[in-house]
Each structure stands twice: as C-alpha cells, then as structure tokens.
Please model this.
Amino acid sequence: MTESIAVLVVFFIIIVMGFVFYFRVNQTTSTIKETESLELRSVQVAQKFSFLPETECSDDNVRREDCIDLRKLNKASELMITNSLDYYDAFGFAEVTIQQVFPRTDTNNDGIIDDEDGKWLLYNNTPPDWTDKLSTIIPTALREARSRDTYFGLVIVDVYDK
Model:
C-alpha cells in the first residue's frame, strides 16, 4: 500500500515538474515573439517614414533615395506635429526625429551650436505608460534644394510598446 502511494507521489511530482517546465518555455517564447513584433513594427515605421512625400528629395521630379529635403522638412515638422492624428495609422505609438550630424550648424540662429540645432521632431505619440522602447537609426542625406548643399543626418525612430 505504501509502495503505491510512494509511486503516485513520485508520479505527481514528475507531472508538476513537467508543467513548470512547459510554462517557463511558453513564457520565454511569448517574450521573444513580443520583442520580434516590436522590432518588426519599428522597421515598418522607419520604412513608412522613408517614403513620405512630405520630406523626400527630388531632382527634376526624380526621387532620390535616402534623402530628405530640408525646405520640406521645416514645413513637415510643423504640419506633422499639428496634425499628428492623421499620421497615427502610419506610425502608431512612436517618435520620429531627424538629427543633422555633420556639419554642425546654428539652425535656430541663436549664435550657439547646441543639441537643439539641426534637430527636427516630426511625430511624437509617446504613450504615458509605455513598457518597452526600441530605437531604429537610419543614416540619410539632408539636402538644401536652393544651394544644393548636402549634409549628413540620422532618422531616429523610437517605437513604444504598452
């Protein structure tokens, strides 16, 4: 009789250990899938931004790859911030910033070259209770159409997860 009880106890311990192992593996797998989903969403937002007509460069109506027109960018930053609900379907919970890296210039004409110079916030819909953030940085050319000067910049896309 005691042998049967001992066998049952060992059997149930093995079953409990199996369930614990299964749930741990399942939890790890779901965490990995959530991370992959956030990475995919970040790349999608970056690609959608790259093809916006509001900021693209063109020479004689021919679109240039990986290029942002600075004249369009100045207007687009005002337009996209004031009409951020129109861009929610494309970007969701994200923040899109353009940063001019080289050469550093005084773009706000205050006589001081600081971190705010050469920085444009285009879209900002950061949820107050975000749990995870993934940044995607894309190198790009910033082009001044009038003088045909080209600068080096970065498109910084931060995607948030609730």
